[in-house]
Known about the structure:
5 helices; 3 strands; binds zinc ion
Amino acid sequence: xxxxxxxxxxxxxxxxxxxxxxxxxxxxxxxxxxxxxxxxxxxxxxxxxxxxxxxxxxxxxxxxxxxxxxxxxxxxxxxxxxxxxxxxxxxxxxxxxxxxxxxxxxxxxxxxxxxxxxxxxxxxxxx
Length: 127
Ligand SMILES: [Zn+2]
């Protein structure tokens, strides 16, 4: 399954999409909402996942901090593919078939993504 998704969308493209969705209004601190941000390198082991530092509260965070994808065992490209399928109003069954998921995984992903890519719970530090 992973290989199929990764063939569809490479990691670089996935992170570009994620930034377009998440930072549509510009990068903003997940803790204090400040928009004065400086680049802060990349996440270890993934040069496509950018890190940032808030100039106000000084915390560092990355493209996935405080998102549904942050601590997921599922590949990032799968999350993104399902997110886009939801935007196209595909059904749970169509999504399960398209991404070769069982219906329970499909339902879980859809449920989480319907609440948005960003989590509503409090910010968790990216140390
Ligand atoms: Zn901040």
